């Protein structure tokens, strides 16, 4: 399986991009343009670095350095793919429509972004970049109060959350805390695509781990959730099979 980039869903005929992305001074103009290109691609397609270079009409080095910027700021999140036997099968880069507001949980050296070669099944390549996360230290943050008249989470977003969680008061409380914190940060979840990106990450983990991911996102004032380190994961996880609802 080649290293690939996946993106969330989008409306047909046009591409919606948050203004903060276009005006993010942490990104070069090249990286902002690459983000726009990625957002415009069909949601079901997978792209290698070589494929992106062809689409953009530029060299692989330009694509590689642009991806490095997006990774550093947090617009791209790297995940490891595994085959049916549980063996490492390559890296997947997931595009986020928003970057973390505060601390960036992942960094990568742009020299280590892989080319589009296929890894040997069962033999992880040392050429693939490793995800370096700052050690998580629990801390208490005072959540800023949302100003009166500020943006609120739309009802259809709450419906998506309810469809995902079902009747689970503890999980609902954790998710509500996350959404309220986004409102307090003046960055509420406003689109179906955005909430589905968050929910799809939580589908991959147990209920207990999902709650912990939401709690950590609130503590760090992150705009999305990220996988926990091995020593952060709660014991005795419960499968996600009971949560059936999906938001389209």
What report would you give on this structure?
The chain is mainly alpha-helical and 248 residues long. It folds into 2 domains: 4-112, Arc Repressor Mutant, subunit A, CATH 1.10.10; 136-248. It contains 8 helices and 3 strands, in the order E-H-H-H-H-E-E-H-H-H-H. It has helices spanning 19-22, 29-40, 49-56, 60-73, 155-165, 169-184, 192-203, 207-220; strands at residues 4-6, 76-82, 88-95. It has a 3-stranded mixed beta sheet. Helix 5 (155-165) runs parallel beside helix 7 (192-203) and helix 6 runs parallel beside helix 8 (207-220). The protein is globular and about 50 Å long. The relative contact order is 0.13. Mean pLDDT is 72; it is low at 102-149.
Secondary-structure blueprint of this entry?
Elements: E1 4-6, H1 19-22, H2 29-40, H3 49-56, H4 60-73, E2 76-82, E3 88-95, H5 155-165, H6 169-184, H7 192-203, H8 207-220
Parallel strand pairs: 1-3
Antiparallel strand pairs: 2-3
Helix pairs in contact: 2-4, 3-4, 5-7, 6-8
Number of E-type strands: 3
Strand order of the largest sheet: 1-3-2
Oligomer: single chain
As residue ranges, the low-confidence spans are 102-149
Element pattern in H and E: EHHHHEEHHHH
Apparent shape: globular
Span from first to last CA? 28 Å
Quote the beta fraction.
5-15%
- Please work out how many helical segments DSSP would assign: 8
Describe the sheet with the most strands.
3 strands, mixed
How big is the Rg?
A: 18 Å
Whole-number average pLDDT? 72
**Percent helix:** 25-40%
The number of domains is: 2
Assign the structural class, choosing from mainly alpha, mainly beta, alpha/beta, alpha+beta, or little secondary structure.
Answer: mainly alpha
